[in-house]
Amino acid sequence: MAGLHQDDKDVYGVEQVENTKMDRDKSPVDSESQLEFSPAEQRKILHRIDRRLIITVGVMYCISLMDRTNLSAAAIAGMTTELRLIGFRYSIITLVFFISYVIFQPPATVACKKIGPRRFLSSITFMWGCVMIGMGFVKTWDTLAGLRVILGLFEAGFFPACVYLLSTWYLRYEMGKRYAYFYILGMFASACAGILAYGLMQMDGLADLGGWRWIFIMEGIITVLVAIVGYFFLVPFPDDRPDKCWGFLNEREVAFVIARVEKDRADTTTEPFSLVKFLRPGLDPKVWGFALIFCCLTTVTYALAFFLPIILREGMGFSVGAAQCLVTPPYAFAGIVMYITGWIGDKYHVRGPLLVFNAVLCIIGLAMMGWVDSLGVRYFGVFFTCAGANANIPQCMSYQGNNIRGQWKRAFCSATLVGFGGIGGIAGSLVFRSQDSPEYLPGLWACMAACLIIIATVGVLDTYFYFANTKADRGEFAIEGAKDDFRYTY
């Protein structure tokens, strides 16, 4: 995690942190006192938060991503034949997950704030781990589809809760690298899922169960174990009572974190929950612009997650074992691109151009996959496609997080962002159709169209942000209702 702090001198500074504006009843220290930490002490506090928070939620997200996308590995390991996944049955199984996943996003985010991240996230992770184990014993395809609906219900609150939790601990221009590290750990699942699935396939015949069943059973057991460990390592929201931090930070350090976030964007105080206040951000058009970008991103990322091994097997002619293992290198490359663009975004306070760059990279990769004769070049196109699509996930999260204020608005926006991501998952589960095998050209066209929509939406938002900042500089406009120097990031 040391790389997170190489360019953060401007964030920490050498000046004293201003008085915290927390409500006196919730404040761990007297509101009149000054909290003083040297730059070195500040870095140590941030290092501690990174190690505890990012690694914990990142590992749990790694398991989450693996569990929702292991269908493609199971499909080529015998599930398609044993469950008779003819016609649209495989697409239906992938699609139904997102119905409950989208519907339960908003209430799950509110529940996380009310219950607390430690109990909420560990509980839902434990429950979907049990569902995963059950998927290894299904006899019919419709039973598997039903379990996927339940899986979507439990996973609905995980990603938006993590995005929301991370955004409450860090400043605006610390988020890019943190979101990148968080998602890179998730990418580790995508990179290693094929190799792990190939290893688990070798258990074929053990206890009279097919190798594809052991993929679900063993990964479900891993999920349950991670949930139990995560219960003891997850952290609360920073404005929660310090005695809930389990010795993670002391009272002065918690107050320091709250004070610096308050100084950065003045939204650390959580108002009592009101349905009207929670839904009011829905009137803000840019909220839906962020959601549309994320929807288009996940259309591509889920399409790759659900179908890449199948494309490598049927479209490019690799063997089952090679198709499982060749998924890993493109995702490893994507992790490198993701961190570099996250670092650039934080250092130079830029988001929109990086989203456009990654979208263009993805379009180039898709074109190489579909319209080049050389097998090596087509496979190299997978690298560009994976990198462009996946590197834009943390970029979009940072783009949104930098341009909104308020605790409940953050909760609502996290829910809408990931909810639309679920809609993108529905699209991603349908774009590559069995009748389009082996070229899958309509699916490639659909993914390219999604990237073009991202570019157009970023252009509209950045244009609005530019003129809004210009008006605010002239004193004609208060951005996000703020009376300070808060400005949009484009």
The amount of helix comes to over 70%
Mean pLDDT across residues: 83
Distance between the termini: 27 Å
Instruction: Give the strand tally.
Output: 0
CATH-level-2 architecture? Up-down Bundle
What is the global morphology?
Answer: globular
Supply Rg.
22 Å
Number of discrete domains: 1
Quick tags:
490 residues, mainly alpha, Growth Hormone, Chain: A, 19 helices, 0% strand
At a glance:
The chain has 490 residues and is mainly α. It has helices spanning 9-12, 39-69, 71-82, 89-103, 105-115, 117-135, 141-155, 158-169, 175-201, 211-233, 251-265, 275-279, 285-315, 320-325, 328-348, 352-371, 375-401, 407-428, 441-473. Keywords: Membrane, Transmembrane, Transmembrane helix, Transport.
Description:
By secondary structure, the chain is an all-alpha fold. It has one domain (2-13, 37-267, 275-476): Growth Hormone, Chain: A (Up-down Bundle), CATH 1.20.1250. Helices cover 71% and strands 0% of the residues. It has helices spanning 9-12, 39-69, 71-82, 89-103, 105-115, 117-135, 141-155, 158-169, 175-201, 211-233, 251-265, 275-279, 285-315, 320-325, 328-348, 352-371, 375-401, 407-428, 441-473. The longest helix has 33 residues, at 441-473. The protein starts with 8 loop residues before the first helix and ends in a 17-residue tail after the last helix. The relative contact order is 0.13. The model is unreliable at 6-35 (pLDDT under 50).
